[in-house]
């Protein structure tokens, strides 16, 4: 990989199942900002995003007003895309609504898998799809719940990041570790 930040993320976070709502919201927010960009771009700005978005406390983000949104649009430490910033606020509101309707966002999102991660058996990076039919289904459901910037590619990236799907290559040390811990 060649980048220590990316390697550390891969080795310690990517693909590890996440069930905590706060962390699920963080990843969902970061994935929406990543849309159309490389993940390393977002990863390098992750600390700035955390600071700018109140450590991803969705209750605070849901209450952002036009002044806070305007300040975020000027924050050079994050990706200053107006639509994505507004989507983050909207998604925080939808996240809270989803929690109320399903008990937690974790219950809602993991129910698509009956709480059990999918383990793929890819041998090369070329085999990993940009999205799957399940990601399309989750994407459509999230949109019905009011979320924005949650197309199937964003959703699949979220599934990979939060361990809903294990897309580590079979010869990767993390593949076997995750399999053993499932």
Provide an overview of this structure.
It is built from 11 helices and 2 strands; from the N terminus they run ααααααααβααβα. Helix content is 59%, strand content 2%. It has one domain (13-181): Hypothetical protein, domain 2 (Endonuclease III, domain 1). The protein has 182 residues and is mainly alpha-helical. The chain has a two-stranded parallel sheet. It has helices spanning 4-12, 21-34, 39-44, 46-52, 58-62, 66-73, 82-102, 105-110, 133-144, 152-161, 173-181, and strands at residues 118-119, 165-166.
Could you write a compact summary of the structure shown?
This protein has 182 residues and is mostly helical.
- Give me the count of strands: 2
Tell me the Rg in angstroms. Answer: 16 Å
Number of helical elements: 11
Largest sheet: 2 strands, parallel
SSE class: mainly alpha
Poorly predicted sequence stretches spanning 5 or more consecutive residues: none
CATH superfamily: Hypothetical protein, domain 2
Q: Shape from CA axes?
A: globular
Q: What is the number of domains?
A: 1
Topology at a glance:
Blueprint: H1 4-12, H2 21-34, H3 39-44, H4 46-52, H5 58-62, H6 66-73, H7 82-102, H8 105-110, E1 118-119, H9 133-144, H10 152-161, E2 165-166, H11 173-181
Helix pairs in contact: 2-7, 2-10, 9-10
Key words describing this protein structure:
182 residues, mainly alpha, Endonuclease III, domain 1, 11 helices
């Amino acid at each position: 990989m060649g980048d220590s930040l990316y390697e550390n993320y891969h080795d310690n976070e990517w693909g590890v199942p996440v069930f905590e709502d706060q962390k699920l919201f963080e990843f969902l927010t970061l994935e929406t900002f990543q849309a159309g960009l490389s993940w390393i771009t977002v990863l390098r700005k992750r600390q700035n995003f955390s600071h700018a978005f109140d450590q991803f406390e969705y209750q605070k983000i849901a209450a952002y007003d036009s002044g806070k949104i305007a300040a975020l649009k000027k924050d050079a430490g994050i990706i200053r895309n107006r639509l994505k910033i507004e989507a983050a606020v909207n998604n925080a509101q939808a996240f809270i609504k989803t929690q109320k309707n399903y008990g937690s966002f974790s219950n809602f999102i993991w129910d698509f898998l009956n709480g059990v991660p999918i383990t793929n058996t890819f041998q090369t990076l070329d085999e990993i799809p940009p999205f799957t039919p399940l990601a399309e289904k989750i994407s459509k459901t999230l949109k019905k719940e009011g979320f924005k910037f949650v197309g199937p590619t964003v959703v699949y990236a979220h599934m990979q990041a939060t361990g809903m799907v294990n897309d580590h290559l079979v010869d990767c040390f993390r593949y076997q570790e995750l399999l053993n811990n499932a």
